[in-house]
From TrEMBL:
Gene3D superfamilies: lambda repressor-like DNA-binding domains. Residues 21-74 form the HTH cro/C1-type domain. It comes from the Bacteria. It comes from Streptomyces rutgersensis. This is Helix-turn-helix domain-containing protein.
Amino acid sequence: MVNRKDLDPEESPAAEFGVLLRRLRDERGWTQEDLGARMRVSGTHISAVETNRRPPTPQFARSADRALGTGDLLARKVRAVRNSSLLEGFPEFVKQEIRATEIRLFEVGITPGLLQTPEYAAAINRGAVRRGAISEQQAEERLTLLAKRQASLARDPVPFVHVVLDESCLRRLVGGAEVMRAQLERLITFAELPNTVLQVAPYELGERRSFDLPVRFLTLPERVVIAYAESAQQGLLERDYSAVQPMLTAYHQLQAEALPQGASTALIDQVRKGIS
């Protein structure tokens, strides 16, 4: 079949759902339009779910089960999609992150995962569990994934990592004084590595700060640059360079406006010493 997109079921629960839906449809010799007609949706809708461009809903899964005669197989699968604690696009981002030659990121409010101490990361996830945002099982899922991401930075050759932190990352107390002091010390240690740059975007930047939400850029071995941005409820992985390029330009502008590394680490140390 021409232009048939290969799918990786390990990319995310939604991708696994899409692979299963395609397999079940293929086994019956149906086209996407055939299945869509039986479900009273368009073939384009079927294609979007199969290729992980559109998340399946419980109603969609139940309708597909009826059309395919699969009992509640897809309905059970879609619950795994909705129960995942990872935002759409993030599993694919992580998959590319572990092979990137360069990683650039900007974070607001909390230290980014790659730089978190275990105690800081645990405190963040405990807070999410207490708020009811995630389950304890999902918290464990996040911490396990974070440990794998951090371990991947020790690969050979090591990636270049450029981090710009909004000053709020330093000022927001997470996990208590001891945990926060250790986290800030971890940032200073990170800045001393030969393959890293760490800058702080101070509050004084005001409207000159390029981003209001976290953003990450990966340069892959083939020199392709991809971007990932997220809000509290949605993640977006962007591969189209026409969309990535203006975001990357804004990041370079932020680098120019942020404090130099020496002044940044001095500010971090000042905040660390002021925690009581």
